[in-house]
């Protein structure tokens, strides 16, 4: 590919440049003899080429005003034929800019693509390609070079756009706004440590500068100082009070480290906003229908429990969920678990029988057997107390918990038999070979990753190298998918993998018959579909492109 001209000529210079083909130098002075009558000077006649260019330019402007786009393109191509290479690029650029302003939404571009004029369709394909996110845009432009070989923009513009995309200015300086004084000092220091550790394993092509945002009223001034000192992107601030100081400023170069209602600010939160959804998806993948939820009365735990219950009931009509809570002030975990599994009703039946028979009976509580899984919500030490209770009630159910079970010290993960077989979502850093010590350091690490990869992050794209989760964009919010872990029977923490059940020969045969039936049904539906000509392209979840995994986040 030849290197295209680095600078585009502005459309407003087009006329001047093209008319430069006609001589416009100052003529030499001549001696004019006095004459009796006044004679007007002779006006040099324009060349046929200049007249034709002028006429085409006028016609192009008129076609644009009438929004007669087929005529606009035809006339522009005629003008293009008269120009040299430099001015041909200017004409291609002018057409692209004009159509981009007129067709600036997905709906408008689709309307352009549906036009029967093939030239309009080719320009619509270019606009569609340039609207693609991150790596998709690069691939889309490469595809145009193959499939739109007759398009006007093939001559110069497409190469120029690809070159500009390839040499797009990367982030060179990152400013970090964190409160290094007061009650958030320890949190800020851990985030800073994570940022620095990510920087140390990078190519060190960026500069990191830290600014103290401890005084809320000076946050905007600190941001302005950072920009004045050359920051391309700003990470932070951290607290909602600090973020409020930047709200309404129309700042698109900020990754706030907390939630915000500002529609322009991007935000990245320490806690995922979709943990309840991720848990219910995992339960649903195991074909459960009836679950029990046991939560502490702590506000955040109870909120998660209610969200899990709501999400679970919405997953399917046959789904059922029982929610029970326990108090942290009057801790009675045995009673809380008993309430969940109907121990009290069993005890009442025993008391009634004893009163009727007037004799002592051997008794063991008969608890409900309809639950298929239990979700425990609380801190690790609280959840661990339930383990002997499960043995007492002879419960053999899969036990799930929340990310609260993530170890606080990532460099010294202890075994815990009381959490044996408990399954829970956690951060990738738990199993990564790195120097991170805590969740907050993993959060800082990912903040640095985001600052460098933000242009590659878009809907349906995830950054898989995150240490606090698999990072994805949801509107202006950057959220994360957690990974799944499990404590083994002896209390060792390890990655969780779905249990693979070996099928009998009869079950394999039945599964094969069912698969063939479904394939035949799909073939029938495809034949009847009016959209059979539309190709559905899907990238396998495992396919990686420069560290970016193409998946649809749940």
Describe the structure.
There is one protein chain. This protein has 554 residues and is α/β, with parallel strands linked by helices. It has helices at 14-19, 48-66, 69-82, 85-102, 106-113, 118-130, 134-147, 157-166, 185-200, 219-228, 240-244, 275-285, 299-315, 333-340, 343-357, 380-384, 386-392, 439-453, 505-528; strands spanning 173-178, 207-212, 233-235, 254-256, 266-268, 290-296, 320-326, 373-377, 399-401, 422-426, 462-463, 470-474, 477-481, 483-487, 493-495, 544-545, 548-549. The strands form two sheets. A ten-stranded mixed beta sheet has the order 2-1-3-4-5-13-12-11-17-16, with helices on both faces. Strands 7-6-8-9-10-14-15 form a seven-stranded mixed beta sheet, sandwiched between helices. Residues 1-41, 343-359, 361-367 and 529-554 have low confidence and may be disordered.
Briefly summarize what is shown.
The protein is of the alpha/beta class. It is 42% helix and 13% strand. A hairpin with a 2-residue loop joins strand 16 and strand 17.
How many separate helices? 19
Cα radius of gyration in angstroms: 34 Å
Which overall shape is indicated by the principal axes computed on the Cα atoms? globular
Strand content: 5-15%
Q: Mean pLDDT score, rounded?
A: 78
In angstroms, what separates the terminal alpha carbons?
A: 40 Å
**Fraction of helical residues:** 40-55%
Main β-sheet: number of strands, strand sense, barrel status? Answer: 10 strands, mixed
Low-confidence stretches: 1-41, 343-359, 361-367, 529-554
- Structural class, by secondary structure, is alpha/beta
- How many strand elements? 17
